[in-house]
């Protein structure tokens, strides 16, 4: 993160200078894309980065130019990331669309590694249910057959697992 | 939306902003609190026996403890509206301050004197009234802090509402000291504590929905 450079751009943006602001948004946008690509499934990273840019715009008055820019931006990015995880929890019973299937590329592998690290901290039954239904795209019924569990137990495991995943992410976020 | 389109839109929407300042928010809260206290005195709610109680150290213990807790927690709540500030560590120090204030009160209050003595000292019918009035007096600073929080960008939506609740409750209790005829530390700790706990619980469960951004 080019902290001093972004700090000066943000100060100019707070004063209303559009060229500095455009440059800041482009550079910060790339950083946000990389940030979310490591933490979210590929289909969600772009949306999350755009949402974070909108938030940066709405909350730009909360940046104090006497302080470094990096921690401020990282705090906003982390907050929006946790929001995304919460939203994933809310959509626990929805089927994954084909668009969310994991692509075979380096970006996808990176995201999968981050998710795997979080999943490994859940109970195996919860992690397996989330892997099968949310990542591999199986239906609840198929996952239940594969895991030898009832349909309702798979649903409960996914719901509780996503809830815990969100809490773990939040805890981790505040310790960073 | 395409990335370039979003950046164009945001750039077009750019206006100069005045960034948040800690001291401005503190002054706003001090004004809200001062107006509330002034109104209490103006409508004559201050208790008639206040001059008599002024000679008792427990009155000063109440004012000093609640004033300190309110000031520190209010300042920390306002700091936590900065997205890069985590109030986690500060809350521990605040808990220590509260514990020291309570310990002082218990030392001043003397021995409880058995169950019957405790029941008499607690006077629960008046106590419930006191707790209720503290909750009411906490509302103006609670709303003020919540609005300031909404303008800011708090990232810890568990601890920031707790700080807001504690600051507002401690201020409500501070203002109520001038209208409360009771001066027994045990009574104060239990019933003022109950009022403050209720305000904190309300803040903890209601404000996160309001403060989300």
- List the chains of the largest interface with their residue counts: A-B, 33 and 28 residues
Overall pLDDT level of chain B: 91
Could you tell me the CATH topology label of the largest domain in chain A.
Rna Polymerase Sigma Factor, Chain: A
Q: How would you describe the shape of chain B? A: elongated
Order of helices and strands of chain A: HHHHHHHH
Helix/strand class of chain B: mainly alpha
- Oligomeric category: heterodimer
The overall number of domains of chain B is 1
Word description of this protein:
The complex is a heterodimer of chains A (about 180) and B (about 210). By secondary structure, chain A is mainly alpha-helical. Chain A is built from eight helices and no strands. The longest helix of chain A has 25 residues. Chain A is elongated, with a radius of gyration of 19 Å. Chain A has two domains: about 90 residues, RNA polymerase sigma factor, region 2, helix turn helix motif (Rna Polymerase Sigma Factor, Chain: A, Orthogonal Bundle); about 70 residues, Orthogonal Bundle (Arc Repressor Mutant, subunit A), CATH 1.10.10. The mean pLDDT of chain A is about 85. Chain B is mainly alpha-helical and about 210 residues long. In chain B, helix 4 runs antiparallel to helix 5, helix 7 packs across helix 8 and helix 8 crosses helix 9. Chain B is built from nine helices and no strands. Chain B has one domain. At the A-B interface, helix 2, helix 3 and helix 4 of A face helix 1 of B.
Briefly say what this structure is.
The complex is a heterodimer of chains A (176) and B (213). Chain A is mainly alpha-helical and 176 residues long.
């Amino acid at each position: 993160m080019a902290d001093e450079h972004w700090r000066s751009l943000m100060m100019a943006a707070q004063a209303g200078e559009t060229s500095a602001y455009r440059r800041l948004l482009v550079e910060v946008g790339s950083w946000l894309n990389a940030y979310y690509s490591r933490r979210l499934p590929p289909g969600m990273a772009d949306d999350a980065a755009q949402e974070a840019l909108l938030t940066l715009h709405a909350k730009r008055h909360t940046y104090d130019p006497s302080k470094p820019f990096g921690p401020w931006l990282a705090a906003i990015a982390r907050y929006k990331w946790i929001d995304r995880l919460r939203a994933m929890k809310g959509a626990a019973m929805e089927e994954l669309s084909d668009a969310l299937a994991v692509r075979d590329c380096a970006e996808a592998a990176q995201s999968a590694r981050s998710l795997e690290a979080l999943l490994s901290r859940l109970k195996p039954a919860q992690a397996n249910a989330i892997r099968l239904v949310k990542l591999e795209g199986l239906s609840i019924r198929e996952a239940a057959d594969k895991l030898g569990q009832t349909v309702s137990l798979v649903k409960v495991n996914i719901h509780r697992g996503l809830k815990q995943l969100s809490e773990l992410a939040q805890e981790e976020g505040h310790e960073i | 939306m395409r990335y370039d389109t979003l950046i164009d839109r945001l750039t077009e929407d750019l206006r100069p902003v005045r960034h948040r300042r800690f001291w401005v928010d503190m002054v706003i809260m001090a004004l809200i609190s001062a107006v509330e206290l002034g109104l209490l005195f103006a409508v004559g709610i201050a208790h008639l026996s206040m001059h008599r109680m002024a000679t008792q150290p427990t009155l000063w213990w109440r004012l000093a403890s609640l004033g300190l807790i309110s000031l520190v927690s209010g300042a920390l709540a306002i700091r936590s509206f900065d997205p890069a500030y985590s109030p986690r560590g500060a809350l521990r120090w605040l808990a220590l301050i509260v514990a020291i204030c309570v310990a002082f009160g218990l030392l001043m209050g003397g021995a409880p004197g058995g169950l019957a003595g405790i029941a008499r000292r607690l006077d629960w019918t008046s106590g419930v009234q006191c707790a209720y009035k503290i909750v009411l007096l906490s509302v103006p600073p609670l709303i003020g802090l919540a609005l300031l929080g909404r303008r800011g960008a708090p990232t810890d939506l568990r601890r920031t509402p707790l700080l807001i609740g504690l600051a507002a409750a401690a201020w409500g209790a501070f203002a109520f000291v001038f209208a409360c005829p009771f001066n027994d530390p045990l009574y104060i700790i239990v019933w003022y504590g109950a009022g403050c706990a209720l305000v904190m619980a309300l803040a903890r469960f209601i404000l996160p929905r309001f403060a989300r951004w």
